[in-house]
Amino acid sequence: MLKTIVDPADYEVRSVIRFLNAKKVKPVEIHRQLVEIYGENVMTDGMVRKWVRQFNDGRTNVHDEVRSGRPSVVNDGLVAKLNEKIRGNRRFTIGIFFDGFPQISKTVLHEIVTNRLNYRKLCSRWVPKMLTDVHEAK
User: Fold this and answer.
1) Which residues of 8-32 are buried (b: 16+ CB within 10 A; e: fewer)?
2) pTM of the entire structure?
3) Where are the domains of the chain?
4) Is the pLDDT of residue 31 over 80?
5) Rounded CA gap, 91 and 110, in Å?
6) Where would I find the H helices in the chain?
7) PANTHER family annotated for this entry (predicted)?
């Protein structure tokens, strides 16, 4: 029995498609082999045909094309403003911050507070995740 490879990188699958296409394997057979090794959710038959067509048209790069994404509204200045507001009032809610920063979603605000600033909710106060000895004693 063959070993199934779980969660392959996209470029890895495209490399296999490019290799098998160079050996003149038909797209249907390429898809069958991909499903056999990588599982049912690896890539649709239509996507395999698309990649075979691109490789036949001269594409050699198996990596994603560089494209511009949505610009991030999170920057160091915003993180500093949030940190300043937290230090001014530790009994805030994400909703209160959302009213003050409507351009940022509540999810992004929560991630900034918990991941970038390393605060966590303790009772009704937001405190740093890493408490000093003085804080722990209090």
Assistant:
1) beeeebbebbbebbeeeeebeebbe
2) 0.51
3) 10-57, 76-116
4) yes
5) 14
6) 10-22, 27-38, 45-56, 76-88, 94-100, 106-111, 133-137
7) MARINER MOS1 TRANSPOSASE-LIKE PROTEIN
